[in-house]
Amino acid sequence: MAHAGTAAASQAPPLALGPRLNLSVMMFLEFAIWGSWFVVFYPYLKGKGFTDEQAGSLVGNVALGAILSTLFAGYVADRFFASERMMAVLHLGGAGLLYWMAQIQSPSEYWMLFGVSLAYSLLYNPTLALSNSIAFRHIPDATRDFPSIRVLGTLGWIAVGFLIDILFSSGEQTAASSNGPLLLAAGLSAALGFYSLLLPHTPPTAKAGDAIPFLKAVGLFKDFSFAVFFFVSFVITIVLAFYYTNTGDYLQQAAGVKRLGSTMLIGQVCELIFLPLLPFFLWRFGMKWVLALGMLSWGVRYALFSQGGAEGLSFVFVIMGVALHGFCFDFFFAAGFIHVDNEAPRDIRASGQALFSFLTYGVGMWLGNLLAGKLAGMYTSESIDSVGKSVKVVDWYHFWLIPSIGVLASLTVFLLFFRPRMQKLSGATGSTSADIYEAEHEKRIQTGEAGVDT
What we know:
The longest helix is centred in the first third of the chain and has 31 residues, at 17-47. This protein has 454 residues and is an all-alpha fold. Helix 5 (142-168) packs across helix 10, helix 9 (260-274) packs across helix 12 and helix 10 (278-306) packs antiparallel against helix 11. Helix content is 72%, strand content 2%. The chain is built from 15 helices and 2 strands. It folds into 2 domains: 15-204, MFS general substrate transporter like domains (Growth Hormone, Chain: A, Up-down Bundle); 216-423, Growth Hormone, Chain: A (Up-down Bundle), CATH 1.20.1250.20. Strand 1 (380-384) and strand 2 (390-394) form a beta hairpin.
């Protein structure tokens, strides 16, 4: 049955080609920057002689930066600084820091690289929320238009994945053995920094004398269903970290995969296919059941991984698990950003997006990296291979089964307690019920009829 709030086709005006191309280029570059260096950074550091602990800490700075800076950036964008100008400053500064990171290649300079990489993460992470905020402010209908713009971010990630292999892999040399990906990321960051000045003007929306937007965004937790949504999103992102941290080793050890890059890209290709279909699913099933489908996909993925192997049906399970990334990301995280935009009042939407990024890409991802490492250590044992050499073997069955059970438990909580308070309304203006609620409340204030809102 179609969801009541989204059953009718949107009557909002179509998104013009100019703004669509403008926002799409922004999304393409935003994720091309991340994808060009992050996927090879860990093996790059190992190849330079950094220890596992040092490499893990440096990679973890990405999540740590999200924890420390994202909410502050949302506050500034909501009150003081136009979002597109803030994007320009952050990406231009990030370009310089990425170039600096590319020059630091000795383990003896670990603490310098730690500081520079953390500084870069403090600049880059807020742009994830800002890019979403800019897009949502300039599209007539978030449910209908956002997925077709956000999909360009996935395309950017895929494109640079192939590009770094073409540019920096030859013979015995791989992309992970060169600082070229960092230099490429620096160039892309500079390009987006200058391009951000061409983005639609997105001024602050909070009024003078208003409460701090972040505090108002935290106030969204007063709505029980919204609090359930954020809690479940936090748990799911912990599980997401398991995928990014351990899938490469799993594919090599348990499934015998040699071409990790192209195998992992199966997930991004599926994401590219299903993201444009997200508006149809939201229209047909409603926000709650789309989010539930995304959660279920995470649980099924890890259940398939727990049964995976190198041959026959077991290997099919592995590939199916990788391919489920399209459902996992599109139907939970992309839909989740739309849900936040529909629920948050207009003057704190940047802070609402920042709060969502803070709890997911920040705290959730950081804790997930720590828990994944500890769990892998718990299920790792010594074994003797065919030539009598001692090797470490991971019990992947139990490793993947635990997050699968955690996801399914969270799904149960979600289905029992999540009740969307505000739904996308189909109208000429493309307004959300949050906007209409605010307009009615302002009118009651002006007529002296305002009381306690329920």
